[in-house]
């Protein structure tokens, strides 16, 4: 039983520039400092590649998660598909809930710039426990809206940082004496 959401934004930069910026784990962590606590790729250069695993400590919709994932598919610099398992410790760690999660990040050039989207999903088990967790997540705790907010905040951060860097690099440097 899936909970899905998707955020997208137009960034005035080409896909390669965006890819270089967003795949830096320091930038990804900085994109949501209140909810990202660190990201590491299990690669020599600490960058994603197809088949690589990663670990991210974060909060999703106000709940701490220890996410262990893998990049299933990468078409550099256009698409990255990831899947993983997020471990949510509840009741101060007395119970840990495991939720399969994943996402698809796309960079598509348009006439207005590059559309960056991140479609994410969570897969709750189709049993009593899973249905209860999904109900809590989507209804009682209203976390679905917070899932969108979490993803959209990352994209807005990337747009602001990348476009301001492009503006800075295109400013005239002035004449030197």
Tags for this entry?
177 residues, alpha+beta, 7-stranded antiparallel beta sheet, 4 helices, 31% helix, 43% strand
Explain this structure:
With 177 residues, the protein is an alpha+beta fold. It has helices at 15-22, 25-30, 128-140, 143-170; strands at 2-11, 36-41, 53-60, 63-75, 79-90, 95-110, 113-123. Strands 1-7-6-5-4-3-2 form a seven-stranded antiparallel β-sheet. The protein is elongated, with a radius of gyration of 18 Å. It starts with a strand and ends in a 7-residue tail after the last helix. The model has no long low-confidence stretch (mean pLDDT 90).
Percent of residues in helices comes to 25-40%
Shape: elongated
Would you report the number of β strands? Answer: 7
Portion in beta strands? 35-45%
Number of helices: 4
Average pLDDT figure? 90
Biggest β-sheet strands, sense, barrel: 7 strands, antiparallel
